[in-house]
Design goal:
By secondary structure, the chain is an alpha/beta fold. Helix content is 43%, strand content 16%.
Length: 235
């Protein structure tokens, strides 16, 4: 489905991002992954802090120089430090906003010239059921940004449709990633019991949906947020 496409996956060295990058590569795409810190990966890696617009522009310039175009952007980079709201400091709030929301603005803005030039683009951002559909304790800042991702998706989709650029989002439920290591076994078991499929999701569950939205098979889909949560929010 993605043979020959040039795809950037931010935060693509572990967890959901790695799952997406691996899926894209299996589909034949040229995959570029980014992360704030150098990490092992078998994909083309460019170190980049998405909250820093200069670093983002430099990363995109490297991709354009090597591949001549950018077809797909997956805004996956995100952070979610667990902090009770009453203990949250301004710096905690600002750091999550900078990565999870400003990062999406920086990356999308940087790839637009190439996509507009070629009149083709697929932008998929990773939202979450947290904030978008339900709340979770100790994650007020994270929930706020993920609700913002949905708003960004709707607005950007309308502005960019005239350039043949599709903008969508995927809202994962509970996915087994290294970031969930902070949860104790009792909490994890409670989550599983609340999911109709009685299992935590895997990165590939999200990757399959993202790959579809990044393909030409989803050409008539834009401005949408697709929930992938095993039925958790359907109850």
């Amino acid at each position: 489905m993605l043979k020959g496409k040039v795809a950037i996956v931010t935060g693509g060295t572990k967890g959901i991002g790695k799952g997406i990058a691996d899926k894209f590569a299996q589909e034949g795409a040229h995959v570029i992954v980014t992360a704030r810190h150098k990490s092992p990966t078998h994909h083309h890696f460019i170190q980049c802090d998405v909250s820093n617009s200069c670093e983002v522009k430099g990363m995109v310039d490297v991709v354009i120089k090597k591949y001549k175009r950018i077809d797909i952007l997956v805004n996956n980079a995100g952070i979610y430090p667990f902090i009770p709201f009453e203990q949250m400091k301004e710096k905690d709030w600002d750091s999550v906003i900078a990565v999870n929301l400003k990062g999406i603005f920086n990356c999308t803005s940087a790839v637009l010239p190439s996509m507009i030039k070629h009149k083709y683009g697929k932008i998929v951002s990773i939202a979450s059921i947290a904030g978008a559909f339900v709340g979770f304790p100790n994650l007020v800042h994270y929930c706020t940004t993920k609700a913002g991702v949905m708003g960004f998706t709707r607005g950007a989709a309308l502005d960019l449709a005239k350039y043949n650029i599709n903008v969508n989002a995927v809202a994962p439920g509970a996915i087994m990633t290294p970031g969930l290591d902070v949860l104790d076994k009792k909490t994890v078991n409670g989550l599983i019991q609340a999911i109709p499929e009685r299992r935590m999701g895997k990165p590939v569950d999200i990757a399959n949906t993202v790959a579809f939205l990044a393909s030409d098979g989803a050409q008539y889909i834009t401005g949408q947020t697709i929930v992938v949560d095993g039925g958790y929010t359907d109850q």
